[in-house]
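A note from the maintainers: we've had questions about how concatenated examples are separated. There is no special marker in the raw files; a new sequence line simply starts the next protein. For clarity in this README we add a label.
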Amino acid sequence: MAERGYSFSLTTFRVLVRRARKLAQQYFLVYQEPIPTGQLVQRVASVMQEYTQSGGVRPFGVSLLIAGWDEDQPYLFQSDPSGAYFAWKATAMGKNYVNGKTFLEKRYNNDLELEDAIHTAILTLKESFEGQMTEENIEVGICNEAGFKRLTPAEVKDYLAAIA
């Protein structure tokens, strides 16, 4: 099971999500099991890389975060518009990503419980967020062995209140 996040163009992101879903479906039809996160990332990054070299098409101007759960552990990958991809334990991207990465380097450890990880993620976002963070302008997702779950706005509001 993999979930995707993006930075930059919503239209480009949607094209890549459709492609990723199609790749995952094709894999499932052949092997009767979900595609491993690493293989999905590799295939999507390959598509992105092809667009940097193909005539008549514009390269994808988007970076992706792809999270998944395979073999009893979480995976997080980042791919950039060139098709390069990297595995991370935690990362930040987008405007002011350096602040987020610096914050994560100080706060992240492998033993974080879910509640602490959610607080750390929101605090990391707050490091470079312009304006007021509310339950209306941020989303929080959890990817674990049970699948992917997006927190409700009410749950996000509770977490925001806890860090205020």
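[label: protein 2]
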Amino acid sequence: MKKVIITLTSILSVLAVGVGALFYWEYRSKAQLEAQVEDYLGTCDVKPSHLEVHGRPFILSAMAERAELTYVDVAPQPGMNKDQLLVRELADGKADRVTRFVTFDYPKAGAQPVEDADGAYTDKATIDGKTVKFSGTAGDGRLEVFADGRSFGELPLRKNVTLTSVFANQSGVAAELEYAGPTCALA
């Protein structure tokens, strides 16, 4: 009986050490991926306020030296309330795709986004009982966002940026930008 207890205790101890080592390896792998993303952002002169690496298990991603998806928050500029990058498939200092979402404050407080039949956000919001349509342009090194054709927000941009959509959400008016090329994003 004594040998059985010693054997079971030994097995449980080995399992506990193994599980602990696995958790530590996962934690270190996530830190390695975060460092890889921070290096990429550093070459682009981007200073993140927060970043969140996705793509579990991190161990496999770290072994492949590839960060699958990272959400990067950047300090928003005046007139904006959110600036976020989505960096996809970062490997060897290059990202397959970089998308940026910038959210401008509504032109007036109390605005409510208009949703479509499926509950998705649209390019419209209700402000003071009136429906306002939002649009934007990206060219000549800047993004400009319009409310019913009148400019109300702009942001300097790098070249080779495409504006893919403008939509109203709970936080404000968001513009989705797609960066061409695998290297740097942001100005």
